[in-house]
Write a structure and sequence with these properties.
The complex is a heterotrimer. Chain B is of the alpha/beta class. Chain B is built from 13 helices and twelve strands. The longest helix of chain B is centred in the middle third of the chain and has 18 residues. The two termini of chain B are about 35 Å apart. The chains are: A mainly alpha, B alpha/beta, C mainly alpha. Chains A and B meet through helix 2, helix 10 and helix 11 of A and helix 2 and helix 4 of B.
Chain lengths: ~350, ~325, ~300
């Protein structure tokens, strides 16, 4: 055995080291492959975003300039946006710009889409991060609880909560929440965002209510999925084996059951992340938080289409990234997927 | 002077909950297993063999099962009345169990050495490193080739036979006094079956443990068991040392069972089947449960539960004496 | 996405749905179904017979009657223009239920067609699914928002927008179901006996994808109701004076503390409608695929 093989350095036997390398290489190969698969999707998203304008009925230049605009103003807009060029040329320019990182510029905000999004990113990120960090532990816990005590009142309670979560409109509860906690009780400000730089407390109080409301609805969904997954897993034979080995109930559930349910839970979390983005749109509007969601809504209403296009594109890319991330998590969580 | 058996199941009755109420899965089952003894439990699917086995370690679904009567005594302790923590101490360390389908019985997301090490860490408080070391030794013991490398494999990388060996390794890790093997070879190919049985036999000798082997395969039972318990429709119908059972079966059901096995050197014209079918769990039968299919049935059989008779040394059978003599006449 | 046990996502696929009368009887024995059905029935009847239940005009503004709290005359109170909330909620039910129905039926139909095409014809599968993946990568609400805003704020825009947003989900379900069905023996048998692709699709594959699609559509109905409310709330859906549960809430928002009734009742209505459909969907799923019973 050559003494300078890498495995020799680490003290493993030669073939152990070999296996580790192929194992890890295989993993990297799978991840790289998934990245490649995402490229066509990104391409399509880019084209779709571009088509957004052209799909509008009527002349986009007029729509943007406004019905009352003078012909010169319309022409000006047309030239500014390059709408007078042939279609394919527009598409090519669009894609080229994207490749260079130019996502377009807002007509109204007078800044590039990227910087507009960048400014508002901390807000949306705070909201999303806070709500996810509440949703995941609570949702998984409640779902596991419901599965373990199935058919009991705990189960019924969690399921009812989940049902209400998908039936009650979020924006309505948000308004009720503001009315109760801000206006009536004065516990938190009713609108506006305070960045962390101004202190953890003020930041928290400005985002806690919206984040909680966002979580409330997502917890129901996650709990339901977790319950489903856990019930499935708990009925499997290896759980019986774990008990037959004398493992405690806690160990059986947390180590054996949960690890297997993780696959479905990860799927659910992926869906949740995307839903959180969608949900934040309405929530930001209700709470007047200057986030990306609110910006898009206002851009749509103000017909600031380049901004809408660019932001939709960014959303699309984000989603693809999330999907990729979730996919990679799968390969880590389920060894069966790795070797094929 | 009788030595107390290692495990004594006495008069066990287990009921399951169904929509309409409760059904009796097994009734009045009594089985003794001595130290170092190998007892085979044979019967068709649905005869209650697995239910009995699972009851020993109380592995049934708590919410849907009840045990109205009976006792299971292991080294002086009634397992049915033990606390959960006491039971957990026995599971895996003094009494171990292996199941029929090794693929579904192993956790797919943990390596096989992790799963073996778990038992050691739980019962013998071994550290991670020591447990893994011992796990590799055990894998060697059960003849897994290249144990050190394969220890880090996941179950899906192993063949069926190897997975069952892993189950065995897990089970014997803490040197249990009793190993319950519920149809350990049923899901395996015939050649692998022989290997697993051979493995079990050797381990039994080396570790001096008792084995309760459950199977519907008479061949397996004949190979392996020292004494046999025959079950039908939730009741024990005959009990005898293996040689006696196969040479001189007494209960009509056992006779039918033996006759139904096609013999290589026998008359190969027709297969003998036992007419009729096993009664469903819901059916409430007063008398002998085999009576509707029995070739020697008497009127009394249909009304009252047949008593347990002795038909020889260590040989008992649940059948009225008149039927026994009839049966003996017919061979 | 990895195929995580397709049978669990497509309830009832390939199982013969319980025949006619038996199915209905089993449904009615299900508690969720009865409650859900009752809710939807009441709401639908109220919507259809709105003009009989109230003699008031939903757009009639009577300034002198503004901000009346709920009384026997004005069961849900009046808003800032003196319009009767009860009447507006009733007429709003028409919008919501109609949108829900239209969106689920149309998106279901389109989803079925596209989904089956994707499942049957290998060459079409990859491009179709990439397109669907791309569509699904935009948050549905934003997609709907964009389309609705572009088309102008009216009911038809909302329907188009939501249909486009939900078609990919329908495609996914039907494709998954069709893939499972395609492997079944009776389809292979039909292929072997020389049946044309069209015949196989229509006679064998589609009918067996029906169950999971139906369950899916009830949930889409619920989503559509919630989404329409959100869109109207944001101002890109139904515009006042036409009543929609969403825009009633939007109008009443600023008076949340003083005239709480303006906001409360439409919100309850939305919740009830969505709840009813969700209960229906749950019950349908249980009846059509008892295999999943343990799971939910």
């Amino acid at each position: 055995m050559p003494a300078c093989s890498s495995s020799g350095i680490f003290g493993w036997s030669d073939d152990e080291g070999q296996r580790l390398l192929t194992g890890e290489l295989a993993l990297l190969r799978i991840i790289a492959f998934k990245f490649l698969q995402a490229v066509p999707v990104i391409l399509i998203i880019s084209v779709l975003a571009f088509l957004l304008l052209s799909l509008l009925p009527g002349d986009p230049a007029i729509i943007i300039a406004g019905e009352q605009a003078s012909p010169e103003a319309v022409e000006h807009v047309r030239q500014q946006l390059g709408l007078d060029r042939p279609f394919l040329q527009q598409l090519a320019i669009w894609l080229l710009n994207l490749a260079q990182g130019n996502f377009g510029s807002s007509l109204i905000l007078n800044q590039s889409v990227l910087s507009a999004v960048g400014e508002r990113l901390p807000v949306t990120l705070s909201l999303a991060a806070l709500s996810i960090s509440i949703t995941i532990p609570v949702g998984v816990f409640l779902g596991s609880l419901a599965a373990y005590y199935r058919q009991s009142w705990i189960d019924a309670g969690v399921m009812t909560f989940a049902l209400l979560g998908v039936s009650i409109p979020a924006f309505w509860i948000a308004i009720l929440g503001i009315t109760l906690f801000s206006v009536r009780l004065g516990w938190v400000p009713s609108s506006g965002f305070t960045p962390i730089s101004q202190g953890l407390g003020p930041w928290l109080s400005s985002v806690i209510l919206p984040a909680l409301i966002l979580s409330l609805f997502q917890i129901g969904f996650l709990a339901r999925m977790t319950r489903s997954a856990m019930l499935d897993v708990m009925g499997q034979d290896f759980i019986r084996t774990a008990r037959a080995k004398g493992l405690s109930e806690w160990r059986t559930v947390s180590k054996h059951a949960l690890r297997n349910a993780l696959i479905l839970i990860i799927t659910a979390t992926g869906i949740l992340l995307s839903a959180a983005i969608g949900g934040s749109v309405v929530i930001e509007q209700v709470f007047a938080l200057p986030g990306i969601g609110r910006m898009v809504v206002q851009a749509i209403l103000a017909r600031d289409y380049p901004l809408v296009q660019g932001t939709m594109l960014i959303f699309g890319f984000t989603f693809v990234l999330i999907n990729l991330f979730v996919d990679v998590l799968y390969t880590l969580a389920d060894p069966r997927v790795r070797h094929d | 002077m009788a030595v107390a058996p290692l495990l004594a199941i006495r008069d066990l009755t287990v009921q399951f909950r169904v929509d309409a109420g409760w059904v009796t899965a097994i009734e009045g089952v009594s089985i003794d297993i001595g130290e170092g003894e190998c007892v085979g439990v044979v019967g068709e699917s649905g005869s209650g063999k697995s239910v009995t086995a699972l009851s020993i370690l109380r592995l049934h679904d708590r919410a849907a099962t009840r045990i109205p009567s009976g006792s299971i005594t292991f080294r002086g302790q009634d397992l049915l009345r033990s606390s959960d923590s006491a039971l957990r101490r026995i599971r895996g360390s003094e009494i171990a169990m292996i199941f029929q389908d090794p693929m579904s019985s192993l956790n797919p997301v943990l390596t096989i050495s992790e799963q073996i090490a778990e038992t050691l860490q739980q019962h013998q408080n071994m550290s991670g490193m020591a447990a893994r070391h011992r796990a590799v030794e055990l894998l060697d013991l059960v003849r897994i080739p290249d144990a050190r490398r394969r220890a880090d494999d996941y179950p899906h990388r192993l063949s069926g036979g190897m997975r069952q060996r892993v189950m065995v390794a897990m089970a014997i890790a803490c040197r249990p006094r009793l190993l319950i093997a519920d149809e350990p070879t049923t899901a395996l190919d015939v050649t692998i079956q022989a290997q697993i049985l051979e493995l079990l036999r050797e381990l039994r000798k080396e570790l001096g443990m008792s084995v309760m082997l459950i199977s519907h395969d008479l061949g397996v039972i004949a190979e392996f068991a020292q004494s046999v318990v025959v079950m039908y429709a939730g009741r024990v119908v005959e009990r005898a040392p293996v040689a006696t059972l196969f040479r001189r079966p007494v209960h009509p059901y056992t006779i039918g069972l033996m006759a139904a096995v096609p013999k290589l050197d026998g008359d190969a014209t027709r297969l003998t089947a036992i007419p009729g079918r096993i009664p469903g769990l819901q059916e409430d039968i007063q008398g002998c449960r085999f009576a509707p299919r029995c070739g020697f049935v008497l009127d009394s059989c249909l009304q009252t539960q047949p008593p347990i008779q002795l038909a020889g040394e260590f040989h008992s059978v649940r059948c009225p004496p008149q039927v026994l003599s009839l049966g003996n006449i017919n061979g | 996405m990895t195929d995580v046990g397709l049978e669990s996502i497509v309830p009832g696929v390939g199982l013969a749905p319980p025949q006619g009368g038996r199915a209905v009887r089993r449904l009615f024995r299900h508690r969720s179904f009865v409650i859900g059905f009752a809710i939807i029935a009441v709401l639908s009847l109220a919507a259809i017979f709105a003009s009989l239940l109230t003699s008031l005009d939903p757009s009639a503004m009577k300034v002198r009657l503004r901000f009346r709290a709920p009384t026997p005359d004005f069961v849900f109170g009046t808003d800032m223009f003196g319009r009767d909330i009860f009447t507006r909620v009733l007429y709003g039910a028409r919008v919501s239920l109609f949108v829900g129905l239209a969106v689920s039926v149309i998106s279901g139909f389109c989803g079925a067609v596209i989904g089956v095409l994707a499942a049957q014809f290998r060459k079409l599968d990859a491009p179709i699914m990439r397109l669907m993946d791309a569509l699904m990568s935009f948050p549905a609400i934003l997609l709907a928002l964009g389309i609705a805003a572009a088309l102008g704020p009216r009911v038809s825009s909302v329907i188009v927008a939501l249909t486009v947003a939900y078609v990919p989900a329908g495609v996914r379900i039907v494709r998954a179901a069709a893939l499972v069905v395609r492997e079944m023996d009776y389809v292979q048998a039909a292929k072997l006996s020389g049946a044309s692709a069209l015949r196989i699709i229509v006679r064998h594959i589609l009918p067996n994808c029906f169950s999971p699609l139906l369950v899916h559509l009830t949930f889409i109905f619920a989503y559509a109701i919630l989404a329409e409310a959100a869109l109207s709330f944001l101002g890109v859906g139904v515009q006042p004076p036409l009543a929609s549960w969403g825009n009633i809430i939007a109008e009443g928002r600023d008076y949340a503390t003083e005239a709480w009734w303006v906001m409360l009742f439409p919100g309850i209505a939305i919740s009830l409608a969505a709840l009813g459909m969700n209960l229906l969907g749950d019950a349908l799923r249980d009846v059509l695929d008892p295999r999943l019973k343990g799971g939910d």
